[in-house]
Amino acid sequence: MQKDIYDKIISFLLGASWAIVIFGALVIFKIFIVFGLSIALFSTLFFIIISLFLILMLDAFEVNKQRLEESKKQTALLEKIYSKHTK
Which of 4, 60, 78, 81 has its CA 20 to 30 A from that of 27? Predict the structure, then answer.
């Protein structure tokens, strides 16, 4: 199945987002560890939650694109059936 440019961009952004979550969490933890373990864990957890929310948004874009494509296919099929029965 051929992917269009939109699908390729979304796939790339999803992969890059997961990499940013992993490395970003490590960097955030290392930056905030000088303020104490509890603050470092809280800030890292906050970063991860925000990042996962953004990943969910990207995934929602992909799901909505697939839903639109399926709706277009169903509409075309229904129009074909309607045209056969109205003649």
Answer: 60
Q: Which two tokens stand for residue 9?
A: 């961009």
- Tracing tokens 């603050």 back to the chain, one arrives at 39
3-state secondary structure 21-82: HHHHHHHHHHHHHHHCHHHHHHHHHHHHHHHHHHHHHHHHHHHHHHHHHHHHHHHHHHHHHH
C-alpha 58/C-alpha 65 separation (Å) is 11
Cα 71 to the center of its chain, rounded Å: 20
Domain count, the chain: 1
Amino acid at 44: T
Q: What is the pLDDT of residues 11-44, one digit of tens each?
A: 888 899 999 999 999 999 999 999 999 999 999 9
Residue 14's domain comprises 5-86
Q: Which two tokens stand for residue 11?
A: 């796939």
